[in-house]
Amino acid sequence: MTDRSSRRPRAPRGTLNRDRVLAAAVDLLDHAGPDAFTMRALAQRLGVGTMAVYSHFQGKDEIIDAVRDLLFAEVELPPADARRPPHAELRELCRAVYRLLSEHPSVLHLLATRPVQGDEGTLFAERALGLLRRAGLDGPAAARAYTAVMQYTVGAALWTARGRKVRAAQGCDDPAERLRSRFAGLPPDRYPCLTGLAPQLAAAQDGMPQYEHGLDALLTGLLGDPDGRG
Amino acid sequence: MTDRSSRRPRAPRGTLNRDRVLAAAVDLLDHAGPDAFTMRALAQRLGVGTMAVYSHFQGKDEIIDAVRDLLFAEVELPPADARRPPHAELRELCRAVYRLLSEHPSVLHLLATRPVQGDEGTLFAERALGLLRRAGLDGPAAARAYTAVMQYTVGAALWTARGRKVRAAQGCDDPAERLRSRFAGLPPDRYPCLTGLAPQLAAAQDGMPQYEHGLDALLTGLLGDPDGRG
DNA sequence: ACCTGAACACCGTTCAAGT
DNA sequence: ACCTGAACACCGTTCAAGT
């Protein structure tokens, strides 16, 4: 199946460009992880010599920045709809970002290291801040609320990606099951809650449902209970 | 001032041990950052040959795990006090973890990659879960609430560390000011909220106050308003 | 048992050279 | 302008050797 030489045939001249490099970079990151994302592996996947990539990007950092902004631009922002309550629209906006970060866990590492610079990430911030204002928050409260929501989203996605990485490293068994058995095996007299709640803690490692649970609590605390006082 | 040879004198035999390696590792990580944390730099700081460290640790990963657990063990857990409302005690517990992560931003990178294995991190989880149960949450709700709080704490600390890293890289100017001027310079017709709220967004990059703002909102959403219905 | 230095298989990037 | 291969200065780790 694979090339005996483990080196694919060289692509003809002039076929390399920034888009092809970025597409291969996303593939490589998502498939092999950040550690395996090397300039040599990237070039090999593209069928060119290692240094060919440097004709289109200054170096690895510029590729990483471009990948981050490219993927953030792919967030499917729900259509603005003034009739819906801002709470609900904000929730969907956040879910879209979380979904992106979950589907491309490697971006997380990149997002965590350097902030988004691209225009599309900026548009997301604009939308979110507008919804927070519409929900009745003043300037400082909206800024703090936006920051808190982003902090939680990044943290939740990172938490999930961490579980996946452990699974990939340790023979592909369920990370939730590993967590459960680790907690369940602790001495119950010293850790009564932890041992008792091991199954529930494992159940909370389920990605989107857990994210929604925390997000709803956070938004309720930030905006007030939407079903409560009215 | 510095050694002309840029190589410090070798330590006498038998003075190296796990504790000295870990202390040097924490120093190196906090002072020089994760990228500069190499086995060669660590050994040089200890005044031994590179391979001497391998007599005490299997490799770099084992050192990283040990550093993470060591620092997590240093979290100053507030004394348990059944008279205080669980909401307040949980808040202090979380603040202690956030403070640790902020003071040792390099640990974050490590915490984000692999979960805490050490006993002390486990003790923190036990305390937090106990408080959530005391606050009236049932098993599944307590597990989800604990996970959400940890996710938010990691995300918030990472957010702060990211700002610091940018500052260190880009000539030491204030990261909040950089963020403010970037947002303030956007076209106001396309980004009315972002340009208008640039100062408030910059003000929200203040670490602990922002963390507390989000944490209180999250706890309120998870536990119910402590001052509200009673 | 503890520590060393050389060596191996990597990495990102520079550089002179090719087309 | 675009791409190449050799080379440089790194990295973590293996290994045979020293004490």
Uncertain stretches of chain A: 1-7
Structural class of chain A: mainly alpha
Return the CATH class of the largest domain in chain A.
Mainly Alpha
Rough outline of chain A: flat
**CATH-derived architecture of the largest domain in chain A:** Orthogonal Bundle
> How many individual β-strands of chain A?
0
Question: Main beta sheet of chain A: strand number and arrangement?
Answer: none
Rounded mean pLDDT of chain A is: 86
Number of helices of chain A: 11
CATH superfamily annotation of the largest domain in chain A: Tetracycline Repressor, domain 2
- CATH-defined topology of the largest domain in chain A: Tetracycline Repressor, domain 2
As a percent range, the share of strand residues of chain A is under 5%
Q: Nearest-angstrom radius of gyration of chain A?
A: 22 Å
Secondary-structure element sequence of chain A?
Answer: HHHHHHHHHHH
Oligomer state of the chains in this structure: homodimer
What does this structure look like?
- 2 copies of one chain form a homodimer.
- The first copy, chain A, is mainly α.
- In chain A, helix 1 crosses helix 3, helix 4 packs parallel to helix 7 and helix 4 packs antiparallel against helix 11.
- The N terminus of chain A is likely disordered.
- Chain A is built from 11 helices and no strands.
- Chain A has 2 domains: 65 residues, Homeodomain-like (Arc Repressor Mutant, subunit A, Orthogonal Bundle); 145 residues, Tetracycline Repressor, domain 2, CATH 1.10.357.10.
- At the A-B interface, helix 6, helix 7, helix 9, helix 10 and helix 11 of A face helix 6, helix 7, helix 9, helix 10 and helix 11 of B.
- Chain B binds a DNA duplex (19 and 19 nucleotides) through loops.
